[in-house]
Amino acid sequence: xxxxxxxxxxxxxxxxxxxxxxxxxxxxxxxxxxxxxxxxxxxxxxxxxxxxxxxxxxxxxxxxxxxxxxxxxxxxxxxxxxxxxxxxxxxxxxxxxxxxxxxxxxxxxxxxxxxxxxxxxxxxxxxxxxxxxxxxxxxxxxxxxxxxxxxxxxxxxxxxxxxxxxxxxxxxxxxxxxxxxxxxxxxxxxxxxxxxxxxxxxxxxxxxxxxxxxxxxxxxxxxxxxxxxxxxxxxxxxxxxxxxxxxxxxxxxxxxxxxxxxxxxxxxxxxxxxxxxxxxxxxxxxxxxxxxxxxxxxxxxxxxxxxxxxxxxxxxxxxxx
Length: 321
What we know:
By secondary structure, the chain is mainly β. The chain contains five helices and 22 strands. The chain has helices at 39-42, 219-233, 245-248, 259-264, 269-281; strands at residues 2-7, 12-17, 20-32, 35-38, 46-53, 58-68, 71-81, 86-93, 97-98, 112-118, 123-128, 145-149, 160-166, 171-176, 185-188, 191-194, 202-203, 208-216, 250-253, 286-290, 295-299, 302-308.
């Protein structure tokens, strides 16, 4: 069903589902001192085809060693686990790379692999990363899910993950497989890229990124299989929607999302005690209380000192807990 295709002339690859090439022009792109290096255009890699087995299962693999002026740069691998319908992409630095920084932003990822294009008629489902460096601090918005058709309708001003592509024969869900917190995906031109945060200026020798693509029959099937795969690999088991301890009882959070409410009805120890007493009187079990901005801060989200704000909590947080 899922097939990996390798063009050994240029070292680029593609992923097909049935007779449709859903993902193509797979390659690494590096940035050194602000210069983009699309390696397939500047050098020819040494390619080795191999087979192996690891904790995930048996796989067919392709190893690419990329050079620049006879100096080793990176090694990329594509591993296809046919029984699981999973493809894992890896890139390892073969020497320390300096000057990789672009900008302090997820929209300028560096050390990118895989970088790829998608089928023109494929549908796309992506989940935005949320807060970005847009507007005044902190800027941005809550993460959102979006559906569109074709690469041209994917915005280039938001990071996202996971990224799911749905073709006529099935879907593929892409996401980071390690370095999760610094590894959203983004669009640049006609390409989708997975790298690391653009503020990283030195990639040390031996540094490895891993990215996973999981096959499914549809958007939802691909997401479910992707989630199940990650849980299994990291030794976790799925839970029922309401099984988590946080959801067994009512929780109360003085979310700073209620900013204007906070201006007129500021949260403090007395109000929290009244909330608890009221819920108890009504017979509503309270399992936890979440406190937002309990510390001393200057600007929203910028902590000056991680100590209870004496104006709100004169006795500290111990008596409340």
